[in-house]
Batch of 2 targets.
Target 1
Amino acid sequence: TIDKYDALNDQYIEELVSLRSFIGKPSKTKDGFQLKIYANIASAYEVANILKKDAEGVGLFRSEFIYLQSNDYPTEEMQYNYYKEVLEEMGDKEVVIRTMDIGADKKVFYFNLPYEENPAMGFRSIRICRERPEILLTQLRALYRASVSGHLSIMIPMIISEEEVIFAKELCEKAKKQLKEEGIPFDDKVKVGIMIETPAAALMSDKLAKHVDFFSIGTNDLSQYTLACDRLNANLNKHVFNPHHPAILKLIRMTIENAHKNGIICGMCGELARDPEILPFLAGLHIDELSCSAAYVLKTRKNLSQIDTKKVDLDKYTE
Ligand code: PEP
Ligand code: MG
């Protein structure tokens, strides 16, 4: 047993050493298609590690962390300091901060959310914000204030309709107007995007693209909702929760194509973004950005370097 694990350890170290040669290299396929490989984070503590792993930016900062670690609604000042720290540390690299995705598995007691039979399909995220816009407004003010400290983009999760996007965009405008009136500086060029993580959003992506600067596909929830399969249910892992299901890949293809048709960027921040089996499909569709956990950044860059997009048969994935 010791010999077996020693061999595995040697293999692991060998791989880490070989991956180091990809530090500082562009994220490119064999035939020259270049995209960006970002990292997902859930706290400011992870920034040093993702920079070490040569992530080209942050594709998903799960801001729920700030709410989960507080005993009450985090104030604008507290959030501002937090976002500023991350943006400063990342320098000129883009940081996509997702607005609060509270509810479902991320329960916060002081929100006093009602008991629900199906919380994953319940009162969560943007749905809470529409009822209680002051929560999102506080977060947006903190984000725009922090925007002068780096390269910020704002991302809204759990979208199912145009109305939700219009609501979120109006609140962004309100936050900026307030700051302007108060003489507080902010970056007016901050991009606003949405997560495509429901089948409704993917199917409506042509329309939704007209309202936003970018999409990021959240394949964890997109798989859950497309397959009617609770992503946290371990009994379903083996046969039902299959993110390679052609229905999901069709929705992904539709989303990327609609984004590009409308001249906006499309990235991916769910687990599928680091999946070597699906990487040729995503590169073949010319996805603009992939965001995964730090440990997979260099591995994905290496995998990408071995792909020839001209040889990818896209239809094979969605059959
Ligand atoms: C997703 O749903 O794919 C995603 C990236 O968001 P989260 O895992 O935080 O729900
Ligand atoms: Mg999600």
Note: The first strand starts at residue 27 and ends at 28.
Target 2
Amino acid sequence: MASKYCVANWKMNFNGQQGKEFVSLLNSKDLNNGQSQIILCPSFTSLFSMVEASSNSAISVGAQNMHFEDSGPYTGEVSAQMLNETDVKFVILGHSERRHVFGETDDMIHAKMVQSIKSGLTPILCIGENLDERESGNTNQVLRSQLEAGLADVNGEYIIAYEPVWAIGTGKSATSEMVAETHASIRNILAELNVSENVSLLYGGSVSPQNTAELAAVENVDGFLIGGASLDVEKFYSIYSDL
Ligand code: PGA
């Protein structure tokens, strides 16, 4: 059975103090309520304080990105070894904003997958089609090529998040029918790539307390990757409770 995850992608929001306040509010709630593991992904500068604030709790912490090299002349970048120093266990890789705003290619994301696993981190690999690709009937082909590239010769633990680009931050989540169909296709592709059924497959894209009860009931949905709604502790907790 795949494990379930409720992952907050805070993007470039919240400073360290706000992150710690969120952890303290969340920790005051019953975190045995849902069946999923909570992972909060703040900005790099908050990682140390967030790991400290959430120690001895049901909350884990992850980073939003990392570089694929060990070290070197990469101004502004953070390596996996530096993430290890903060004691985070997870890292989001290949988020659509990294792909589309910062120009990350499948090759770079693959190199990050290899490096993160080598460094003992569990990557959350994001994949997803844009609106043109969906409307022209190419969704499965796009997802297949992102999976083939991202997972080539990758052995170890990882999580996959399906996030249709057109659903991210738009308030227009994919319908439960679309998620059911697409997650089933992704499972088929993963089976062809000899990826275990135990690899968790999350959905992301305008997840909110209004749609999580329905989406959580969809087969092959092993949790959520949440942007906007994860900035509000009540909304995040409500989503967690639906899983
Ligand atoms: P959203 O973002 O929930 O605000 O749509 C999801 C994501 O980017 O991971």
Note: The radius of gyration is 17 Å.
